[in-house]
Amino acid sequence: MERFWNYLFYLQYKLLNVVGVKYFQRSLSCIIFFLFPKLKKKKREILNVAASTIDDKEMGFNIGFAFNYMFFTTSIIYAVFFIYVIFILNIKVSKNLSYYLFILVLALSYISNYMLILRKNVYLNYFKEFEKKPFSRWHYLYIIFFHLGGGLLGVLSIYWTVGFNL
């Protein structure tokens, strides 16, 4: 489970790197160097600092964003689990209990992601292992289907259990 979860985390990180460079970094650098032509002298240094800030595997923005995407999808999965348990056991949920369940879902999601990914920087060892293997763009479909499937499961579970006419 830990290996699979770290592979999804690795794919999310790689996808964020590709999207960040292709759509944001290039376009923003063109705009910045057009607006501030004096910065063109230090273009290489500025781009290196930007890339190291975003793509750093230990403290970069993309690691944080990848963790947040995994956290969000895991929260949906735990919420679906609790929706089915409440629906099957036919428990009436008051407002106070729903707040506690919401906090419980977020706590469980964070703890499970922390234990599988961030604890003692386990993901760095897996990243080294995954980078040695051949990689194709088709592998990005795994992470896209994972997030879309989690979201679709959440929406359909609400529809199948309590419906949208609350």
Overview in brief:
The chain has helices spanning 2-35, 43-55, 61-89, 95-118, 122-132, 140-161.
**Average pLDDT metric:** 89
Structural class call reads: mainly alpha
Radius of gyration from the alpha-carbon trace, in angstroms:
20 Å
Q: List the secondary-structure elements in sequence, H or E.
A: HHHHHH
Distance between the termini: 36 Å
Q: Percent of residues in helical segments?
A: over 70%
- Low-confidence parts, pLDDT < 50 over ≥5 residues? none
| Discrete helix count | 6
Number of DSSP strands?
0
Main beta sheet, described?
none
Beta percentage is under 5%
- Can you tell me the overall shape? elongated
Walk me through what this model shows.
The protein has 166 residues and is mostly helical. It has six helices and no strands. Helix 1 runs antiparallel to helix 2 (43-55), helix 1 crosses helix 3 (61-89) and helix 1 (2-35) crosses helix 5. The two termini are 36 Å apart.
Characteristic key phrases:
single chain, 166 residues, mainly alpha, 6 helices, 0% strand
Question: Helix and strand layout, with pairings?
Answer:
Blueprint: H1 2-35, H2 43-55, H3 61-89, H4 95-118, H5 122-132, H6 140-161
Helix pairs in contact: 1-2, 1-3, 1-5, 1-6, 3-4, 3-6
